[in-house]
Amino acid sequence: MPYVSASDADRAAMLDAVGRASVDELFSDIPEEILDRFRPTGLAGASEMEVTAAIHALARETVDPDAVVSFHGGGLYDHHIPSVVKHMVSRSEFATAYTPYQPELSQGTLTAMFEYQTMVCELTGMEIANASMYDGASALAEAVLMAERIVGNGHVLVSAALFPYMRRVVDTYCWASGLAVDPLPWTSDGRIDRSALSSDVSGVVIQSPNAFGVLEDLAGIKDAIGEALLIVSCHPLSLAIVEPPGSFAADIVVGEGQSLGLPPSYGGPLLGLFATRRAYLRQLPGRIASRTVDVDGNIGYTMAAQTREQHIRRERATSNLCTNAALCALAATVFLAAHGERGLRDLARVNYDNAHFAAQELTSLPGVELVFPSPFFNEFTVRVPSDPERIRARLRADGIALDPTDDMRRLGLENALRVAVTERRSSSDVERLVRALREAL
Fold first, then answer.
1. CA 274, chain centre distance (Å)
2. Where do the H-state alpha helices sit in 99-242?
3. Whole-angstrom distance between the N-terminal and C-terminal Cα of the chain?
4. HEC profile for 246-271?
């Protein structure tokens, strides 16, 4: 639907109705430091015609996606989506999935939520899971706030090998909550520095695979941090072939569920996975569906908890996120059910094998080497002998897309490129990447 903005007269009438002389006065209660942080930039103040022209100019720069071979990673990945996923999520019964306040009318939605929660628990090795969150980044930030509610030490340790965009979301949440964030450095193997672990924090955040693609060794970390909560952000598809965080006494496991049946879609909509221990149920943001029986003994589904909801818990609400990614969670549920345990394991293995084949081929080029010797899943980082941004631009001109090199610089690496290889990348795609990189060096 086309957007028609309010006129100056409309805005003046609304301001008069609430007793304010200007928009600035209306929002005067918001501290200036917050306004400075989030004040719009770029197209702010431009006319509709100017904005339209700018967007059309961007559209003209867009390359036909079929002409580009994507090795993008960094949290969003190019996976095959079975046709059954789109078929199911397109059904009208699920089009308005939100909070099913009337369970007798919402058994389909509640059943899907329950199955989703069950699958997330099976993947992560945890006891309970909520019925989805916005995305992996906000799920991680909510996990940090949850750890603070439970432990209350006022600061958290966050791996320096976290995806930069996730770190920015965590920093923003913690900044607004007055929670200090201390970095947990990485070492020469691309994994966290265990000597920097501390028990004098509310939580320790670790990502595995991390922003370099390296699989972290989670063994013994919980013992080293004592009462602090171990929070693990994971790639859900990798959990089909690696030991889940629950096996290492993780307290909270989160993840970006885009790999489970959702397209990258220029960055959204996405799906936040969130699982934890049963003991922390009342501190869990989101809502939980459960299975029960009626007076006649028939199985039915209902809402078991809505710990986040302000209309129920008021100031004790665990989160101000008042919606979720229910349709995206349904897509993940269908995706997981369609693959089954064996199919999911096979899919993960193909991702693993394809990435290792690509790493082997790329490191055969002169001056190209793996940055870290540690195990990885479907993403890895290579060091190149010349300017990585120039190489990336050259590859882009040849129809090959890689992640922005700024990510690597933010993580403290120079002359490095990150490469993600999924089941959609054939051996000929990899060979095309190798040929192009050889010419670009």
1. 11
2. 107-124, 136-151, 164-177, 221-225
3. 48
4. HHHCCCEEEEEHHHCCCCCHHHCCCC
**Per-residue model confidence as pLDDT tens digits over 322-364:** 566 788 999 999 999 999 999 999 999 999 999 999 999 999 9
Q: Are strands 379-383 and 416-420 parallel, antiparallel or unpaired?
A: antiparallel
Q: Are residues 256 and 403 in the same domain?
A: no
**Whether 150 contacts 229, CB under 8 Å:** yes
Residues 308 and 351 in one domain: no
Instruction: Tell me the average pLDDT of the chain.
Output: 90
Token reading at 136: 């992996």
- The answer to whether 99 touches 307, Cβ cutoff 8 Å, is no
Same-domain pairing of 384 and 318: no
Q: Is residue 245 within 8 Å of 234, Cβ to Cβ? A: yes
- Give the residue from 336, 354, 371 where a domain finishes: 336
User: Considering the domain boundaries, does residue 408 fall inside one?
Assistant: yes
Same domain for 262 and 291, yes or no, is yes
**Helix, strand or coil, per DSSP, at residue 206:** strand
> Does 431 lie in the same domain as 292?
no
Identify the domain containing residue 95 by its residue range: 84-336
Cis peptide before 269 (omega within 30 of 0): yes
pLDDT tier at 168, thresholds 50, 70, 90: very high
State the pTM of this model. 0.86
Total domains present in the chain: 2
Residue 301, classified by CB atoms within 10 Å of its CB into exposed (0-12), middle (13-18) or buried (19+), is buried
Question: Which positions ≥6 away from 356 have C-beta within 8 Å?
Answer: 376
Same domain, 271 and 366: no
Structure tokens at 178: 């007055």
Whether residue 96 is predicted with pLDDT greater than 60 in this model: the reply is yes
- The domain boundary, picked from 292, 318, 336, lies at 336
In the block, which residue shows the tokens 């559209």?
59
User: In a 3-state reduction of DSSP, which class is residue 30?
Assistant: coil
- Alpha helix stretches (DSSP H) within 218-325: 221-225, 310-313
Q: Which residue type is seen at 374?
A: S
Token pair of 218 as six digits:
């989670």
Partners of 128 in the beta sheet? 276
What is the C-alpha separation between 425 and 404, in angstroms, rounded?
A: 19
Length, in residues, of the chain = 441
Residue 385 lies in a domain: yes
Give me the residue label for tokens 């904005």. Answer: 51
